[in-house]
Design brief:
With 556 residues, this protein is α/β, with parallel strands linked by helices. The protein is 30% helix and 11% strand. The protein has helices at 10-18, 26-36, 51-77, 103-110, 132-145, 163-171, 180-188, 205-210, 214-221, 239-248, 279-289, 302-314, 328-338, 350-353, 373-380, 401-411; strands spanning 41-44, 125-128, 153-156, 175-178, 199-202, 229-234, 253-256, 267-273, 295-298, 319-322, 345-348, 363-366, 390-396, 416-417. A seven-stranded parallel beta sheet has the order 3-4-2-5-6-1-7. Helix 2 (26-36) packs parallel to helix 3. The N and C termini lie far apart (100 Å). A motif (Q motif) lies at residues 1-29.
Length: 556
């Protein structure tokens, strides 16, 4: 189905032709007519399927139609001719937007301002996405498809100063494209008015669920009119997303281009079984054999991504990491380098890489297998886009066998074992190993002490509990004739005395200070035989404890 068959304005068709597109993708052919009708829609599609254009083109058309209807109503009331289109604004000086973000955002900034002051327009469309990179990509699409129109947009995300973003909002924006966190901050400051929203778009809804944005989304949507068109797009459809769709959408049309969590057809998948300490050396060797390819390596943690980059740099392999701890400017520079003709190895976490639209990614390496099978599909979706071929390689340790089995159950295919690299790989899959759980300790049995000074199985640093023999600083419970070491003192018979812990003697076991100037004995005299009938220790002196002298120090 060709774009020219769509009922959209000539300015949009011209922009599509400028990008060299003629035939719609399946998600575009199914979604665009439904959105043009004004119906709610829930779409399940992977990245790289033309999903952004599927909602950007009809959204821009509906916004322009709404603005035209308002102009015609005003012109008719003033006795002026109707049907006059709004001229596209001349590009403004982008110096005020130099801190806004990447070049796509600066181009967006030129649509946010004009040399000639105009009345502030109400925002008619709100697009929410989970990451800064995805927001920037969506903004670039709106700029590209709306470049022959007077569309204004504001790009809102964290990690950069909010000054240019507030300025764009003050000038008026037809479309706000934002991450939930920064948008909510600006809403609380009174910079955002959502009272005229006609179209609400939620992109990568499942990732926003995973990142904990749902409470923020609910607060934002509470400020949006209930009479609106709502579009929700997601790569997967877990039950929680379906519940949210039931809450936020009205009789939505469901569009699903491929079965949920189906990997791209032309992605060659393989797995290498490896010991945990052999992963990094296997990665080095694998990258040496695929030099100058555009490769993304996925790490489960930000700290792990940094460690991989450090090791590869020591091996003279150019690499850079993107994750939440990196500044926005650094992430943008890294992505620009990755898109160049001499790209570095890109090491990323799932959150930072989700939704990235980078062309010609040839290889994806799962250095750490993801804990959720759906994430695996998102990862390998970076390669094999738009019908191109790609390769996805996974490293699997004994602790990750359960994740591999979950991936194979979800995708309904067995991942073949990779060939070569025998020096660092295992000949057969290792036996699955469950990660150890830390259990709450119980009171120990007989004996004075547990591990590290605590109860057996208890928390480190706890007091030892038991009924057995004494430790290094005193006697055990019961008999009189304890055999403690230096500083020990016999305990009373028949009574229960708490055994002391290692290191510092108990107060009752410390040697007494001598008052006659003679050195104190290193240990009290230990008597043999049964304890006295009264249970008291024998007298070793006068029976009266001498007064402790105050230590006198010289002031000289």
């Amino acid at each position: 189905m060709k774009f020219e068959t769509l009922n959209i304005g000539p300015a949009l068709l011209r922009a599509v032709a400028d990008k060299g597109y003629e035939i719609m993708t399946p998600i575009q052919a199914d979604a665009i007519p439904t959105i043009l009708e004004g119906r709610d829609l829930i779409g399940c599609a992977q990245t790289g399927t033309g999903k952004t254009a599927a909602f950007a083109l009809p959204t821009i058309h509906r916004i322009l139609s709404s603005l035209q209807a308002e102009r015609d109503a005003t012109a008719k009331a003033n006795g002026q001719p109707t049907g006059q289109p709004e001229a596209a604004e001349a590009p403004a000086d982008a110096r005020d937007d130099r801190h806004q973000g990447n070049r796509a955002d600066r181009r967006a900034g030129r649509h946010q301002t004009s040399r000639r002051p105009q009345a502030r327009r109400k925002t008619r469309c709100l697009v929410l996405a989970p990451t800064r990179e995805l927001v920037s990509q969506i903004a670039a699409s709106f700029v590209a498809y709306g470049k022959h129109t007077a569309l204004r947009q504001a790009v809102i995300y964290g990690g950069v100063g909010q000054g240019p973003q507030v300025k764009a909002l003050q000038h008026g924006a037809d479309v706000i494209i934002a991450t939930p966190g920064r948008l909510l901050d600006l809403m609380n400051q009174g910079h955002v008015d959502l009272s005229k929203i006609e179209i609400l778009i939620l992109d990568e809804a499942d990732q926003m669920l995973d990142m904990g944005f749902i409470p923020d989304l609910k607060r934002i949507i509470a400020k949006v009119p209930t009479e609106r068109q709502t579009l929700m797009f997601s790569a997967t459809m877990p039950p929680a997303i379906r519940e949210l769709a039931h809450e936020w959408l009205k009789f939505p049309v469901s569009v699903q281009t491929t079965p949920v969590a189906t990997p791209a057809e032309k992605v060659d998948q393989s797995v290498y079984f490896v010991a945990k300490d052999g992963k990094i050396r296997l990665l080095e060797q694998w990258l040496q054999n695929t030099a100058n390819s555009r490769t993304i390596v996925f790490s489960r943690t930000k700290h792990g991504a940094d460690k991989i980059v450090k090791y590869l740099s020591q091996c003279k392999i150019r690499a850079a990491a993107i994750h939440g701890n990196k500044s926005q400017n650094f992430r943008e520079r890294t992505l620009e380098q990755f898109k160049s003709s001499r790209p570095p190895v890109l090491v990323a976490t799932d959150i930072a890489a989700r939704g990235l639209d980078i062309k010609e990614v040839s290889h994806v390496v799962n250095y750490d297998l993801p804990e959720t099978p759906e994430t695996y599909v998102h990862r390998i979706g970076r390669t094999g886009r738009a019908g191109a071929e790609g390769s996805a390689v996974s490293f699997c340790t004994a602790e990750e066998i359960k994740y591999l089995r979950g991936i194979e159950r979800l995708t309904r295919r067995r991942i073949e074992v990779g060939q070569g690299h025998d020096e660092y790989t295992l000949a057969a899959p290792p036996a699955a190993v469950d990660e150890p759980r830390q259990q709450r300790g119980r009171r120990g049995g007989p004996g004075g002490g547990g591990n590290r000074g605590g109860r057996p199985g208890g928390r480190p640093g706890g007091r030892p509990v038991g009924n057995g023999g004494g430790n290094s600083n005193g006697a055990g419970n019961g008999g009189y004739a304890g055999n403690g070491t230096s500083g020990g003192r016999p305990t009373t018979g028949g009574g229960r005395r708490r055994p002391t812990t290692g290191g510092r003697p108990a107060p009752s076991a410390r040697p007494k200070r001598r008052t006659d100037g003679k050195p104190a004995d290193s240990a009290p005299i230990m008597l043999d035989g049964p304890a006295p009938a009264d249970g008291k220790p024998p007298a070793t002196g006068s029976g009266r404890r001498p007064k402790r002298r105050k230590k006198v120090t010289s002031r000289l």
